[in-house]
Amino acid sequence: MINAFSTTFSIETRGIGTYEITGKIRDLVAASGVKTGVATILVKHTSASLLFFENADPTARRDLEEFLRRLVPESISYFSHTLEGPDDMPSHIRMALTRTSESVPVLDGSLQLGTWQGLFLYEHRRHPAQRTVAVSVLGEVE
Amino acid sequence: MINAFSTTFSIETRGIGTYEITGKIRDLVAASGVKTGVATILVKHTSASLLFFENADPTARRDLEEFLRRLVPESISYFSHTLEGPDDMPSHIRMALTRTSESVPVLDGSLQLGTWQGLFLYEHRRHPAQRTVAVSVLGEVE
Amino acid sequence: MINAFSTTFSIETRGIGTYEITGKIRDLVAASGVKTGVATILVKHTSASLLFFENADPTARRDLEEFLRRLVPESISYFSHTLEGPDDMPSHIRMALTRTSESVPVLDGSLQLGTWQGLFLYEHRRHPAQRTVAVSVLGEVE
To answer: CB–CB of B113 and A80 under 8 A?
Structure first.
């Protein structure tokens, strides 16, 4: 039998950085009962993004954040969309350079990910925010 | 009952820029009858891409376009793939830095997107072109 | 009838570069029997990525590789995640700037891709490696 499951959840962020959500997605796949299929994850914002990244050594994520901070600095002088603060336009661009949705094959009830491959919500704004993530899981339940 | 719907549509572009297709995707989800599931969108080209972006203030998109124009300029001297014109290789790279496919959870018959989160076809070539987008919608129709 | 198919396959890489896997994905879609639906592909690593790119002229891919090599050079001095070698942190960032998963609508049993649009596994490490790709195909089989 095929099941179609769809839900949303919220996550509180505390400024620029990566927040792992792999465990939450695994729980939702388990809740769906799907054994063979696909899980789809989307962040419902344009100044936060999704990203698969190594989840073993946090220095790797800090290096990535520093790289993106330098590639898309707040100091760019030609930006005209500045009403929401100097961190807003860089947030949109850093989002555009990473991802909004990801889809993960499910096999034997498990997300098909590598050993140290985690899914992160990447907050690009400086201030704390509540972010919403949408998740659907489709597939065979037996 | 589970339905599987798949189609394509065309869009005429008028040079470099972002063209919103959110409304078209919403129409196709409605046409599919799917209430709980997932919509998948793919642009069938390698010099145009997809991108979720803020759809309220067009200056945000212009700032993004300017950023990518400077990050991947037409003037790069080491490019060897130049037969199709100076805007061709930058188009492929700007596509590579954004997205080709996106998947969106569907809940209660609605695309799960944020209030000002729109899906855009991002044209990277200078000349007008006809672009094709493929869309599938899968899920429970009742 | 709706079918849900999920599997993995391996690919041997021989250093930095792009390795086409479009044919393999087409074979798996055929094996699934799905005529109308969606194929999802994910690379189970954080120092290799996926990318749709032109597959006609290999110079286009070499230009892309050179661009990313210069955008994220091994010589960045502020990297602190350096234990796995100088090519490790650039690999993670080049992965973050391209893609981990892609989803492709299936119509009449065919992947909906453009004529010269191929899917590539993008190896970012210098040494040969065995990479694993997860694939699921969902949809109507008749």
So the answer is: no
